[in-house]
Amino acid sequence: MSISKKIAHKAEAVKGGAKKSVGRATGSPRLRTEGRGDQIKGNIKQAGAKIKDAFKH
Question: Which domain holds residue 29?
Answer without folding.
Answer: 3-56
